[in-house]
């Protein structure tokens, strides 16, 4: 897995997460405190960055979630699921 960070033409920071086949799994564009996260299927999610101390670590967790997670009936902050692989990404808190 790899995360590539660059600037868009409009000066925004863009992080792209790639899998081992170098396919883009997700991208995140930061504009001030607003983030736009785009999944591989093209779905977009808007959220507040809330001063995340390490956006690269955040996007790594979107690319490669933990395989074994305890089952919790609470509702996550964000939830992404790949229809092709069945992988599930859940965000339980953003600081």
- Please indicate the count of domains: 1
The geometry reads as globular
- The gyration radius over C-alpha positions equals 13 Å
With strands numbered from the N-terminus, the spatial order across the biggest sheet is 1-2-3-4-5
Structure classification:
mainly beta
- What portion of residues is helical? under 10%
Q: What is the strand tally?
A: 7
Query: What is the H/E order?
Result: EEEEEHEE
Overall pLDDT metric: 78
Question: If helices are DSSP runs of H or I spanning 4 or more residues, what is the number of helices?
Answer: 1
Q: Could you name the ranges where pLDDT drops below 50 across 5 or more consecutive residues?
A: none
Percent of residues in beta strands: 35-45%
Largest sheet: 5 strands, antiparallel
Distance between the termini: 23 Å
Please, could you describe this protein's structure?
With 95 residues, the chain is mainly β. It has one domain (2-91). The chain is built from one helix and seven strands. Strands 1-2-3-4-5 form a five-stranded antiparallel beta sheet, with helices on one face. The chain has a two-stranded antiparallel ribbon with strand order 6-7. The longest helix is centred in the middle third of the chain and has 9 residues, at 55-63.
